[in-house]
Write a structure and sequence with these properties.
The protein contains 5 helices and no strands. It is mainly α. The model has no long low-confidence stretch (mean pLDDT about 80).
């Protein structure tokens, strides 16, 4: 990453119009990386690990921004109506939750 950052800066400085061509610049950086000797690559690898270790010490755990809720939220009026009528409607309309929910929805619509 250190090599890539350095080379990208050089390439874009030489030709600012290439800054938008991320893929083309990355390919060129890859070609330059493959041309380096093992010793040169090792020096860049060392720079990258040192940089990571320095920054990783500075990173702190993210602060909690939300307060924990102390319980469940209250039910909406529709959900209270649903719970109150579910057993009665399910006996009258067997066939699963979707059938019962549709029937309760019809009853709710009539209430308004």
């Amino acid at each position: 990453m250190v090599f890539s950052q350095e080379q990208r800066a050089k390439i874009v400085k030489a030709d600012p119009s290439r800054s938008a061509n991320i893929g083309g610049v990355a390919k060129e950086i890859g070609k330059l990386w493959h041309k380096l000797s093992d010793a040169e690559k090792a020096s860049y690898k060392g720079k990258g690990t040192r940089k990571v270790s320095k920054t990783s010490k500075k990173v702190k755990a993210p602060a909690k921004t939300r307060k924990a809720t102390k319980g469940k939220r209250t039910l909406s009026p529709y959900m209270k109506f649903f719970k109150a009528n579910y057993s009665r409607v399910s006996k009258a309309h067997p066939g699963g939750v979707t059938v019962v929910a549709k029937e309760i929805g019809k009853l709710w619509a009539k209430q308004k």
